[in-house]
Task: structure prediction
Amino acid sequence: MTTNRGQFGSRLGFIFAATGSAVGLGNIWGCPTQAASNGGAAFLLVYLVLAFALAYPVLMAELILGRHTHGNSVAALTGIANRGLTRTIGALTGLFGIVVASLILSFYAIVAGWMLGFTVSYPLNVLGMESAGNWLTEFSTSRNLSLMAIFMVMTVGIIMGGVKEGIERWSTRLMPTLIITLLLLVAYVLTLDGAMTGLKVYLIPDFSKILSSQLILSALGSAFFSLSLGVGTMLVYGSYIADREHLPSIGAQVALIDVGIAVLAGFLILPAMYVAAERGVDIFSASGALLSEDTLIFTVLPELFATLGTAGVVLATAFFFLMSVAALTSSISMLEVPVAFIVERFSWSRRTAALLMGAAIGCMSGLIILNFETLFGAVIALSTRYGQPLLGLLLCVFVGWVWQRNSLLAELEKNDPNVRHGLFWKIWPVYVRFVCPVIIAIIFYRSLA
Ligand code: PFF
Result:
């Protein structure tokens, strides 16, 4: 079964693929701006603690469960629950994850399309094709539909290639490119006037905010979204890992790289904002808060780039290219969730499954674009604010309570016979059984309230 369904060729290949999934728009754009509006380094501190204390255990639950069953999310959850009702709940949870992954992809592809448009618009403007450049950057239904479709075709193309030839090959190419581009951008922006003020805002902690429930909620949401948790991406990627690999350390590396890139992105975004302020660009909203989200990316930064002449064109192209790459490696992991299920459950070819699921999710994106005001924000909230934490909670319950402890231990002992005497086995099971579900439930409840 393992060879038919594909497997990552190397540990590094898996790490690139999993960090590719994790590192996305959330890291480069979401995390730094949230830090800025939530007490700077105080937010970072809470984010780091939550990432390792809560998100890492859930990531491990997904990886271990996936690797144990070597199957898609439905197969994995029904595989560990062998009794009637629990089995049905397992199947429903797996299906719910597939739906949420598809919903996330349906809005993500729209935003990723905008990134593609901005990347190409700068060189086009230099070549004198301003009207095409403007069309690519101005909000319109035709632009949104066309760029989303192009992005979906790229995503489907990679997934059709399979685990090794598609996901692993492209992640191995794109992730080093992403890291190098990010480092170059940070190095350049830090040399500009005003950058140091941004750095101070980012790094000087405002501890008065550290206990605010708003801060903790944002940090947990960021950590979950950033590590692509709950929806089964890490579970499915985990199902393609060879049995010889040591999961706790591989998972720790993925979490470290993901968090590291989110922190590093702050060294780009906040200094860039204050460089923009130095050049007369407005970076604060009427309420005095830093501009964030789409206004930051599609208004403040382009205004900054426009003041920098030729360097601005290079900087802008590199920045939006970076965002496009980050989005692509994440979206392939989302599409893999339904594709793996269809291929294994209905024995369709990977090609057909990828094409049909890509088309179906593309239609959903189209629907969102045609009803943008009503659907865009609603789908984001539904999938990331409610769907992901709820799924994370269910996953912990399954791994912590339903999965037999001996079988779980046997999975970990495959590559570490002494695991039962180590720190991981002393702490992690308690975490997935008690700590994670309770804390997620509390935070989930508060976010509903
Ligand atoms: N981790 C991605 C980001 O930070 O942008 C988003 C994401 C990818 C969420 C895959 C969920 C997912 F299944």
User: Anything to note?
Assistant: The chain is about 80% helix and 0% strand. Residues 2-183+222-266+330-448 form one domain. The first helix runs from residue 2 to 5.
